Amino acid sequence: MTHPVPGYLYILQGELTVEFADGKHLVFKTGQAFMQARTKWHRGINTGSGEMRFLAVFFGEKGTPIILNPPHAQSEPKP
Length: 79
Known about the structure:
Layout: E1 7-13, E2 15-20, E3 25-29, E4 33-35, E5 42-46, E6 53-58
């Protein structure tokens, strides 16, 4: 995914790993906050041993999507 508007996350519980298309990754744990990547394709994964919860706040004009998913090839099934 990417984000067309600025977004901030705060990890309420657990561990979130953000993986980027280039193979890099960042790990965030309970109590940490960060600005979401906007221009790089990425995904978030719960890599902790239990439940993971976060608070996300996005800032944008009403009606603007907060998440853009990558396009799928016609031969690929959509999730």
